[in-house]
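Field reference: "sequence" (input) and "structure" (output). Example, PPM-type phosphatase domain-containing protein:
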Amino acid sequence: MMLSFLSLAENITEELGTSDVPPIEVVKIINGTFSKIEKDFTLLAECGYRDNKPSMSIVSSGCLVSLIWGQKVFTANVGDSRAVICYDRPDGPGWCGKEMARDNSCCEQSYIRQPSHPKTRCIGNAHLKMAHFTTEESFEAPEEDRVENNFTESVLSAIPKVSVRDIKETDRFIIFGSGGLWKLLTNEQAAKFVNSRPRGGIARKLATYAVKLAAEKSGLTYSKMMLVPEGTDMSGRSCVSSEPVRPIYHDDITVAVVYLDINKNIDSKTFYSYHSHSYNVLPSGFKDDLDIVKKKKDDPDNQPKNRKKVSKVYSIWDD
């Protein structure tokens, strides 16, 4: 059975179980889940190859996953998405914005300049990982992706870059954004926008702000930009079209903002989440987590071995 994107969070949660898991094991579970996704992508490419549809091997996706597990935040990333945490300055008034997960893309110059130049990361793009996908006569790779047919080592990697951070009382919120957001805003600009506005609908507001910037750069108003068709080109690739389509002006933008209110007494009934894929505002799953914590805290017979760690898994896919 193939592991779909929608079941990624559930898979990680099930693997963690209800007991305490050391950080190194959590990282292994996250890496294992990414490996399952990559295996399924490769299977799709193999099926397309056998059916004389080698173009399936150029399908790919970036993925940014964040797991809040106990008092730690685990962030795993492949592709050009990014996670930025905002926290109070330890040495005085004000705040700081810091990357938790950076772009794993060859478009990021500081990434290229690292010693030994780590591979660009993504899910899929099998033709850049296994040479036999390029030998089919009907196969024609996009110009920007062409490599020698006889390469012996994978050009790309599906192993995520995982970072671990202890949640502190000074932490305010985390911004998760796909590559389209960070092509228009710096870390500081995004953090300042979120920090200076009310929480209600903040992710949608930030995405809207980014689209407005893209419109201004193209000499359009926001309302006119929203009338431009979305197009069918894959996000992140050069768009060639005789008609105006959205990828000409900006890459796909997905945003999630998570506030870290560790010590605040908040009524969980007021928690809501904005689901960007369906434009729906629904009760947040955090309500269930807080109810679990409260029940276990009020239960004197509850033993540590039976405690369930509060966890949430967030993921952003950018194809």
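Residues 23-50 form the longest helix (28 residues).
Helices lie at 8-16, 23-50, 109-112, 179-182, 187-195, 202-217, 222-227, 286-298.
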